[in-house]
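Second attempt. The first submission of DUF3817 domain-containing protein had a stray character pasted in from the spreadsheet, which I only caught after the job came back as garbage. Lesson logged: always re-copy from the clean sequence file. Corrected sequence (143 aa) follows.
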Amino acid sequence: MALAPRLETFPQIRGSLKFYQVTAYITGVMLLLLCVEMVLKYAFGTEIEFGGAYGLIAFVPSGTVQAVNLSIGILIAHGWLYVVYLIACFRLWTFMRWPFLQLVLLATGGVVPFLSFIVEVNVTRRIKRYLASREAELVEVAD
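This time the job returned cleanly.
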């Protein structure tokens, strides 16, 4: 028999679901920015410069960045935000008492472009449906 979430953790599940949703969207957007940056760098030999001689934001040849290198900034930001996303996934996975494979699926959302958006919608729908059905069962039992 699979373990079911405890009733006393339902408020924590809702909070961790909200945290997961926010981190999923932020990580997904940062991953898409990272993909664009990688295409610019490796297909076109261009990096993104912020605040340099060519204006506020400029595309310059790789290796010639004189000011702040936004390409590196995007890379670093996605890495750290992915760590926060993994914490959100772990927290949600723990409260829901899912099998380990579900955690792996949640984690892949931050490394496969567009997957975080798809997984987030499915997980949110699944959890909200589950919580509503469990609470409806409790109301029926109480009546």
